[in-house]
Prior knowledge:
Elements: H1 2-15, H2 18-25, H3 32-42, H4 49-61, H5 66-84, H6 104-111, H7 123-139, H8 143-152, H9 164-191, H10 199-224, H11 238-266, H12 273-286
Amino acid sequence: xxxxxxxxxQVLEAAGxxxxxxxxxxxxxxxxxERYAMFLVSLELSAHTAERRLALTRARxxxxxxxxxxxxxxxxxxxxxxEALPPLHGSLPSIIALQPPPNPHELLLLRSIEWTTYNQxxxxxxxxxxxxILRYFLASGRVALAKQLLDMLPPELAAIxxxxxxxxxxxxxxxxxxxxxxxxxVVQAQALEVARMNRETRLAWLDDYxxxxxxxxxxxxxxxxxxxxxxxxxxxxxNRQRRELIRVRQIYVPELIIxxxxxxxxSRHYIKENLTxxxxxxxxxxxxxxxxxxxxxNEDGRRL
Length: 304
């Protein structure tokens, strides 16, 4: 009977009869969840979000555990994407160079998070998977994709407190993107300066410019003086996670330091105290309490 059902499911899939697949998959007993999940994985990028949600809902309508189907589908989709994507090793990526558009494998990884964000009951799994995907995109230098993923996630994920290490890692990513947004605003503020400003306009511009630079300074300093993405992972797969987090730090900690230093020195003619701040930043980098200098060296000891 199982063989007959499986054969019929394959016929339904080939014919595009998506509304019937959950019905017959539900009759497969112990294999029902995994079999329907594999069908959902096969949709890849062909189905938009509403179609995916409807297909997942059909699992519940036909007696399947919708949460188990969602988790299994997300896990298998992530596995499929990672099989096709390059591993994280070798030289660190440039985040200054113009980034190419996302390829289908990156989009599949990005959209894998949809399966566990439809229902609050799978948000904890979504948080774990979001960290994995954010870590990969950032360690690959794909900042825009990581930000796109963050924007897709429900705000409730930031309120999850357990497991603490997982929750902290996610909050650290949000902290980084708050800084990234502030740095973009600095560039926008700089572009608003024009040579022929009247005194009142210039004072207003300078006040805004000072405020956004102060914010960038405070946010970056707070990140540098905290244990941002520092972890002592002691569990299966922990060494891989630790290597990936070190790689992320080695890409972005030096970048944030260089950008902040450039901002402070470049604005010293408008904000005189920023030169002193730039000198203090050098002291922070050299401070043995924070060990920021370690992020300027690859794990194999080569200078970046």
